[in-house]
Amino acid sequence: MPSPGAPAPPRMSVEDTYLELLAETLEGLDLPARGQFLQRFFHTITHVDLRETQCVQVWDDMLARRRDLSGQSAPPVSLKTALMDVLSTSGFLRVPIIIEYDELKKLELNAVTDPLTGLYNRRLFGESFDKELNRSRRYGQPLGLVILDLHRFKEVNDKHGHLRGDEVLRATAATLKKALRTSDSAFRIGGDEFALLLPQTDSPQALALSRRVETVFSEMLRPLQLAVAVSMDHGAAIFPQDAETADQLIRIADERLYSQKHANHKKADNGKSHVETLAAPEPAAAPPAAAGPTELLVVAPEPPVAPVEAQVSPPPPISIETGRVPEKREETIGSAAVTAPIPAEVTPPAPIPAEITPPAPRIFAVQRKAERVSMAGTNAYAVIGESGAKRARVLDLGFGGVAIELDSQEDLPENLFAVLHVPILPPVRVNLKPVWKQLTAQGGFRVGCSFVS
């Protein structure tokens, strides 16, 4: 029992206590069992592979070194100090480094992360691609690969500088983190080139997700107010539908990416002057009330009106709010407006008699937040009502609303609760406001709804 005036012995750390307990336990084991345990132990703490006999020898040398050092110093030497001394002088550790665990994890993360965007880098892309391919082969599930790049990104660097270009790249990373599912992975594999790995994703789902990413990207760029219209192109390849190996899938996705890029932007360049000509005149009619940013939608002149008995057309959509038929060529969904696209080449109409003066083209300034994503070809559906007894097909989906189709015509309440089941998203609970309705050629009942917060 220590005397009252003697100082208390120093308290051992957790590591020293563990090593002391380990030493007492190993004394009761036979030599083969001791060698097997020590082999794993040294591999864990030093990442050096030694034979079992070498591990036993190092452990015995550590115990002997501790006895020697304790006899030369007043306070006893810990097993950790003796172990580090033996390992550093034995040649097994060529560059001995002591590092905190948190710092080690940071180093490991930095090795596989792009420092600018925070996405995974090309090195981890190769490793993850191989793992996901092996998993898909084992369980017989599809794997989607999407390669994305930014159109006119070089012009941003040339016009606004590289710091602004870095903001665009960070906006791209934020887009991918926002639009992807938790099971998906995003990588920056080049300067303005990115890759997505989509487990359990077939071709229609990969296409729908790519369009969603492009739509979110356009929203992310708005606060930057760039003078260059940067856009995103994509190319997708699906295992095993398109190819079996990683190299083949990457090659196919690259080919589809550049095929889409050349087709889309060549068409845009050809139609650029035509669109500018249509948008040049001043508005001839007062724009409808709308809040927020607007864009110009051009409606072509109406042809001469034929006699009433000669006109045969499908029933037009009827607004639920006003009870009237909206103007032709325009459907209103919440605060968003959709109009038929203007073809690049328009066939001139038949000559109009001199006594009939055609009306001037009308230009409407209508709020339009984002394009809608078509859900055609997917199994997207909506469960209607709190009880969930009614289901409807989801035809398309956007930021402003959703279009659904019922099997028969029926009256819907002004506020509608629904749960949307879309392949690229988890089930989403939404409140809907029916805005317009229309009977389809197949006998269904199509309803356009806006989201209500």
Mind telling me which CATH architecture of the largest domain this is? 2-Layer Sandwich
The SSE order reads: HHHHHHEHHEEHEHEEEEEEEEEEEE
Which spans have pLDDT < 50 for at least 5 consecutive residues? 273-314, 327-347, 361-369
Helix fraction? Answer: 25-40%
CATH H-level superfamily title of the largest domain? Reverse transcriptase/Diguanylate cyclase domain
Number of domains: 3
Instruction: Kindly report the average pLDDT value.
Output: 76
Structure classification: alpha+beta
Q: What is the CATH level 1 assignment of the largest domain?
A: Alpha Beta
The helix tally amounts to 10
Strand order of the largest sheet: 11-12-13-16-15-14
How many β-strand stretches? 16
CATH topology of the largest domain: Alpha-Beta Plaits
Largest sheet: 6 strands, antiparallel, barrel
Amino-to-carboxy terminus distance: 74 Å
Describe this structure in words.
The protein is of the alpha+beta class and 453 residues long. The protein has 3 domains: 77 residues, no CATH class; 164 residues, Reverse transcriptase/Diguanylate cyclase domain (Alpha-Beta Plaits), CATH 3.30.70; 126 residues, Thrombin, subunit H, CATH 2.40.10. It is built from 10 helices and 16 strands. The strands form 4 sheets. The chain has a 6-stranded antiparallel barrel. Strands 2-3-1-4 form a 4-stranded antiparallel β-sheet, sandwiched between helices. A hairpin with a 5-residue loop joins strand 11 and strand 12. Helix 2 crosses helix 3, helix 3 packs across helix 4 and helix 7 packs across helix 8. The termini are far apart. About 16% of the residues have low confidence.
